[in-house]
Design a protein that fits this description.
The complex is a heterodimer of chains A (417) and B (467).
Chain A: H1 5-10, H2 18-21, H3 24-28, E1 45-52, E2 61-62, H4 67-73, E3 85-86, E4 92-93, H5 98-105, E5 109-116, H6 124-133, H7 144-152, E6 162-165, E7 182-183, H8 201-211, H9 221-241, H10 256-269, E8 276-282, H11 290-315, E9 321-326, E10 347-352, E11 359-361, E12 380-381, H12 382-392, H13 398-402
Parallel strand pairs in A: 1-8, 1-9, 5-11, 5-12, 6-7, 6-8
Antiparallel strand pairs in A: 2-4, 3-4, 5-10, 9-10
Helix pairs in contact in A: 5-11, 8-9, 10-11
Chain B: H1 7-17, H2 23-32, H3 34-42, H4 50-59, H5 76-89, H6 93-105, H7 110-113, H8 116-128, H9 134-142, H10 145-150, H11 164-174, H12 182-192, E1 195-198, E2 210-213, E3 223-225, E4 228-230, H13 234-243, E5 245-246, E6 249-250, H14 251-264, H15 271-283, H16 288-297, H17 314-324, E7 328-329, H18 332-337, H19 363-377, E8 385-386, H20 389-393, H21 401-411, H22 419-429, H23 444-459, H24 462-465
The chains are: A alpha/beta (417), B mainly alpha (467).
Chain lengths: 417, 467
């Protein structure tokens, strides 16, 4: 039975120093990281971008040839037809999305239309949990990528197999056998020590590790907090030892998503064997005065993702990276009296990268076929979306992770190498 | 079953009903006995808190030569400092604890509300109604300008009502997610039309908004809310929601009881506890104080499995360590670190308050907590947040490393930490810079080095993250 990751890292912790806790490949050099990766996957990275709050798919990928959109539902906040960036003669991007449009033009972007699930839940928090766990019944306590991590990363010894650029750990990444680190900057990612007595710093760090290395007979919250604390120390030590010399090769816009994606590139360039990166960008719950706020958000998303791929291109790393977006739901089709939109169901999402197969997956939003609450019917089950990524990008048994098989969308090239 | 009242039980009550206690406060609580100790927390109106109010008057105004108040209430950081100051220095800990509970329950965020005064006033409303009737609190919050803007009822109107507040009123504030339908959301939204604000303008930085019930935008039609039909308005909707029952009894009672127990005692309470508390809620005509009072007098509250099982939120963590270390503070260090620790107190990312528990703990937030404590305990200057080592160690024997661990462990409520953890602390105290043992001598230089370092370690141990 393979040793689990904690045992690997913390055998004989009583005499361990922090440097002894760092996996040997971090000390020896990047090429050893490949040993921690599943065969056929070497170097592949999945970047998940969560658009928190429920993005309005209809004002993102605009059905600008559908009169119902302008004449009935979006009289005030609709995106003018003349301004949209046409994709296929039916649908077009919001005009602020020039960055994503250029990735589309370069055959590096797929649009997945109408993503949702049967009997969609209109609560942010319930729907978000459903998306995080890939389980509308909410019987899973782990995230969908947490289950992937448990199946493929447990015991690989790499404390940075995945991480969240975030002040919290998203449920998507919650696993039983793997702790994903989360941070928003590398500079502050360390156990702070007394600047007044620097000669005591190693004792302080070792004390921190030691007080968090207790054997508990039963799993308690102490045990879990100590595990996270140890993983913090280990991942920080690893990040410190691997100096990447990263210099950005693109100009990023000034927003938190761009900052996070830039940090993702730094980690990718650092060859730390990181497979999963997770970024959250919020503000999409536009119940009122939607237009200006939403346009700003979409522009930030589009410009940031474009800069991210420009940077990866400059670093020679873009062939290894696939980015996907999600959001807990789309918005109500009918705008409200506040010039905003209430909670809805299906929305459009993006897969970006050289392995993305350009196209629009699913029919245009069916504005003439709304449910009793005035919401869109779903066209693609979000588990089909996840399954396609798991199967064709992460090369894993998607059906096992999702509990059953879902139709493959074809938006990721399965033969991409 | 009865309550075994001792220093540990008093410390437990102080951690839960307040934010932790100093050794002197614990001694006083033990001699009071459990009933009087609970009385002092719960019936806090009887406790003189004028020293706090007087101090805050001074800190929120200024006299030359100072050019600004310590807590500038015209920016949100100042309001955060003001709130944290109350939590640290109040003589009515439960008043602030309940206000803090409602801050997480009825969230609002400055990024959308914009008016700092509106956020401050909302906090004052939560304090004023903190342990009154739940009905009154829900009405006051539903008419609170910050909330009306935060969840958009301010711009709702008959015709195409905005559903944002109506949904969260039921989902997050009173009933829980599966206790209503989308049709109920739409109907409650109709009933709430007309509850809006006036005077919300950029001219005074969005600080001047006041509640107004505007009949011109109210939907006067017939609505069916949770099965009851009538020409309901906002008051009716709230009353119907709070009165709703199902086969298990009061739905709002169950929801609030579960949330209060989870906040004060432990997660996933068994049904009998929720039923017992719901009974108190109903029989007291929905009195928050009655439910909270009942919690602190239940033997179950004092059981071993209820102790040290809640994860301190960043604010609770900061307040507890400031209280227990009797720190002098202008609150800048705690407030500057709240976001990195994962808790933007008046600027949440969405309408749902903190999940609490392990959601607070990830590798980044563990380091952020360490960063804050390190800044505090290694501050050897006179400004910011400082601790007085001489005062903390006065009268303590410090001959051996274990003595140092005992002295500071008692101060921080960590006397019951696992033996291995205490051994790791003693080892730290006794370690030379090369890691070898035999370092500790009770000199002022070593106290300055190792006592600070040890407090830092203790505050970043799993035991201190729990309460």
């Amino acid at each position: 039975m393979p040793m689990d990751r904690r045992e690997f890292l913390f055998r004989g912790i009583g005499v361990a120093t922090v440097s002894a806790m760092v996996p040997r490949f971090a000390v020896a050099g990047a090429r050893f990281f490949e040993e921690s990766l599943a065969p056929g996957l070497a170097g592949r990275v999945l970047v998940v971008v969560e658009l928190a709050g429920g993005n309005d798919g209809l004002n993102t990928v605009v059905p600008y040839t559908d009169p119902l959109y302008y004449n009935t539902y979006r009289k005030n906040i609709g995106v003018p037809a003349a301004s949209v960036l046409d994709l296929d003669g039916r649908l077009g991007f919001n005009p602020v999305m020039t960055g994503l449009k250029s990735l589309w033009d370069a055959n590096r972007l797929a649009v997945i239309e109408g993503v949702s699930y049967p009997n969609p839940n209109l609560s942010h928090f319930t729907s978000r949990d459903i998306w995080h766990t890939a389980d509308p019944a909410l019987a899973q306590h782990r995230g969908w990528l947490g289950r992937y991590a448990d199946a493929t990363m447990a015991g690989n010894g790499n404390p940075l197999s995945g991480c969240a650029i975030s002040q919290s750990l998203p449920l998507t990444l919650l696993a039983d056998k793997v702790v994903f680190p989360s941070f928003t900057s590398l500079a502050s990612y360390a156990y702070a020590t007394d600047g007044g007595t620097p000669s005591d710093a190693a004792n302080q760090i070792n004390g921190f590790v030691a007080q968090n290395s207790i054997e508990h007979e039963i799993a308690t919250r102490n045990d879990r907090i100590e595990g996270v604390s140890r993983d913090a120390a280990t991942s920080a030590a690893t990040l410190k030892l691997v100096t990447s010399g990263y210099v950005a090769k693109a100009t990023y816009p000034n927003n938190s998503l761009a900052n996070a994606l830039k940090l993702c590139v730094e980690i990718i360039v650092g060859n730390l064997g990181t497979q999963i990166l997770y970024v959250t960008y919020g503000g999409f719950d536009n119940h009122s005065a939607q237009k200006a706020a939403h346009d700003n958000l979409l522009k930030a998303v589009s410009d940031s993702i474009k800069a991210f791929f420009d940077d990866l291109d400059g670093q020679g790393k873009s062939s290894n990276v696939l980015l996907m977006t999600w959001s807990e739901f789309g918005r109500r089709v009918q705008e409200n009296a506040s010039l905003g939109t209430d909670h809805g169901t299906a929305g459009a999402h993006f897969v970006v990268g050289n392995a993305a197969v350009k196209g629009i997956y699913g029919p245009a939003p069916a504005l003439n076929n709304l449910d009793k609450n005035g919401n869109l019917p779903w066209q693609n089950d979000f588990r089909s979306y996840y399954g396609t990524i798991l199967r064709d990008w992460l090369k894993t048994d998607a059906d096992a992770i999702l509990g059953k098989g879902y139709p493959n969308l074809g938006c990721v090239n399965p033969f991409y190498v | 079953m009865s309550i075994h009242w001792d220093r540990e039980a008093a410390a437990h009550l102080a951690r839960r009903a307040g934010f932790g206690a100093t050794p002197a406060e614990l001694d006083a609580a033990v001699s009071l006995g459990v009933d009087a100790a609970v009385d002092q927390f719960v019936n806090y109106d009887a406790v003189d808190n004028s020293a706090l109010e007087t101090a805050l008057q001074g800190l929120t105004s200024f006299t030359p030569p100072a050019t600004s108040p310590v807590y500038d209430l015209s920016n949100i950081a100042g309001v955060e400092k003001w709130f944290l100051h109350r939590m640290v220095f109040t003589r009515r800990p439960l008043e602030e604890k309940m206000t803090y509970f409602w801050n997480g329950h009825f969230t609002s965020g400055i990024a959308k509300v914009q008016g700092v005064t509106l956020m401050l006033n909302q906090n004052k409303t939560m304090r004023q109604y903190a342990v009154g009737r739940f009905d009154d609190l829900v009405v006051k919050i539903s008419q609170d300008p910050a909330m009306l803007i935060w969840l958009d009822n301010a711009t709702s109107r008959a015709g195409r009502p905005n559903e944002n507040y109506a949904r969260e009123l039921m989902e997050l504030f009173t009933l829980g997610v599966d206790e209503y339908t989308q049709a109920d959301v739409s109907e409650v939204a109709r009933a709430l039309t007309g509850w809006t604000v006036q005077g919300y303008t950029q001219a005074d930085n969005y600080n001047g908004a006041t509640f107004v019930d505007n009949p011109a935008v109210h939907d006067n039609g017939v609505k069916t809310i949770l099965g009851r039909t009538g020409s309901w308005n906002g008051y009716d909707a709230i009353r119907i929601i709070l009165e709703t029952t199902d086969e298990q009894g009061s739905v709002s009672g169950r929801f609030l009881s579960k949330k209060l127990w989870t906040f004060f005692v432990y997660h996933d309470p068994p049904d009998w506890i929720v039923q017992e508390l719901t009974g108190v809620y109903v029989s007291s005509n929905r009195s928050i104080r009655a439910v909270v009072d009942h919690i602190f007098r239940m033997p179950e509250f004092y059981e071993a499995h209820a102790r040290k099982v809640l994860v301190r939120s960043p604010a609770e963590y900061a307040v507890a360590l400031l209280r227990q270390l009797e720190a002098k503070t202008d609150m800048s260090t705690p407030v500057n670190n709240l976001v990195a620790m994962g808790q933007p107190l008046f600027n949440p990312s969405d309408a749902k308050g903190p999940e609490g528990d392990m959601d607070w703990i990830n590798t980044g937030t563990v380091f952020a907590r360490a960063s804050m404590t390190n800044t505090i305990v290694t501050n050897r200057g006179k400004t910011g947040t400082t601790i007085d080592l001489a005062q903390l160690l006065a009268g303590k024997t410090l001959t051996t490393p274990t003595d140092v661990v005992n002295a500071l462990g008692d101060r921080l409520g960590l006397a019951d930490a696992p033996l291995e953890v205490r051994a790791a602390w003693a080892k730290y105290v006794d370690s030379k810079s090369d890691g070898s043992r035999g370092y500790w001598q009770n000199t002022s230089a070593q106290v300055d080095q190792k006592a600070r370092g040890l407090i830092h370690l203790m505050l970043t141990s799993a035991d201190y993250h729990l309460c």
